[in-house]
Each structure stands twice: as C-alpha cells, then as structure tokens.
Specification:
- This protein is an alpha/beta fold and 246 residues long.
- It has a single domain, classed as TIM Barrel (Alpha-Beta Barrel).
- The chain contains nine helices and ten strands.
- Strands 2, 3, 4, 7 and 10 form a five-stranded parallel beta sheet that branches. The protein has a three-stranded parallel beta sheet with strand order 1-6-5, with helices on one face.
- It is globular and about 45 Å long.
- The model is unreliable at 15-20 (pLDDT under 50).
Amino acid sequence: MTKLVRRSLYCSLPLLLSTAILLSQPRWLFTLADHLFPGALYAVLRTDSQPKVIALTIDDGPSSATPKILNILDRYEAKATFFNISGNLPSYESTVQQAVNSGHELGNHLTADEPSIRLSAEAFESDLLAAESALLPYLPTGSKLVWLRPGMGFYSGDMVDVAQRHGYQLVLGSTFPYDTHVHSARFASEFILRTVRSGDIVVLHDGQKKGDNRGARTAETLELILPDLTRRGYQVTTLSGLVKSP
C-alpha cells in the first residue's frame, strides 16, 4: 500500500467513524450530551417489563400538509406533540385547533425557524413569550404549554434557565432520521424502524422550506412506519403521554 493511499485512509477514518456514530445514534451519545449540556430531555428510560411507548414530535408546522398528517395519525390512533412555529399560524388556525381537539399536544418552538442559540437571553425570553401568547388560545382554559424545543436544536445554560423560569422543560429527541437533510421518506422510515426503542422521542418535520415539502414527506413517512410500529406493539403518543406512561 502506497504512502498516499495510507494517508488518505487515515484521513478518512475519523470521518467514516463519526458518520457511522451519527447514523446509528447510539444511546451513549445522548447520555454524553446530557452530561455535557444538562437541562434537556432526550428520551425516557424504560425497562423491558414496561409497555412499549414512544413519543412522536413534529416540528415547524403548521402547513398545507398538516391536515393529511392529522388524518394519518387518527387512522392509526397515534398522537403527537406538534412544535408549531407561531409565525406559521396565520391561515392554519383551524388546523391547529383540530390537532388540539383530536388529543394532540402543542409545544413551543418559538416564532421563526432560526437558530435560538444565536439569541441573547433577553431576546430568547421575549421570543418564547411571544410564541406562547400566540399558542395559548388554542388550548383549553387553564392549560399551559410545558414543552420547549429550541430552533435548530442547539441550546445553552441560559436558555435552560429561561425555559425553567417560565415552567418549560426543554426537549430534543433520540431518534432523528435527518429528514431535514435527506429528502427521502423511505430513508426516514427505515432509519426510524431500525433504531427506535421504547422511551425514544422521534423528531420529524412539517412545513415547507426552499421548495422542500417536509410536511408531505412526513405524511409519507408516517404511512410507512405506523403500521409496523403497531405490529411491534408500540404506543405512539405525545411527550406528556410518554412521561406519564406507567
């Protein structure tokens, strides 16, 4: 083997290793993240003797595809937590209300699809409260929003402090099929079915961005995974449903 080939292999190995880790999403990766950056929920530890439950979360809606997503969830008796962006609410008010009336859950995903980590603590707090004000009217009187997912998934200790001060639990997830980058429902569905375990929090996306109809792809993904998850004995529910499950 020539020196050039060996050097090329040595340079490629770290990239290949990191790619393999990301694609397999091992549980120790989330444990490490929790230790390094505490304050966010990634998954809920469950034993084999407990019912098989996973939480389904859908970000960045609502959109024209949301009604189809709701119909598919209803057909398979599955529930989800929708992290809608408050700036997307106009024109979809009835769809959001339909989701709540059907037993789904709303989470706070702030006002715009942008990296929350770039905001100052004051700006982040203002954004959180603005989104909360737009979302609360859809909930039954006296209900509160309890789940917060930062934009783009990155967060800081200051953001955790702001969230907790306003009664929120910051949440990310443990099964992310890269649906924002790999535009394939087949890939997303096979990834989820290969990696998901009881107690996981699955992250999918609604909305449309730069011609990419993520909501339609999520609807297709759900059509592929929900029958299989049902056959395996999984209950697909909201974040609150997962946390409260015995």
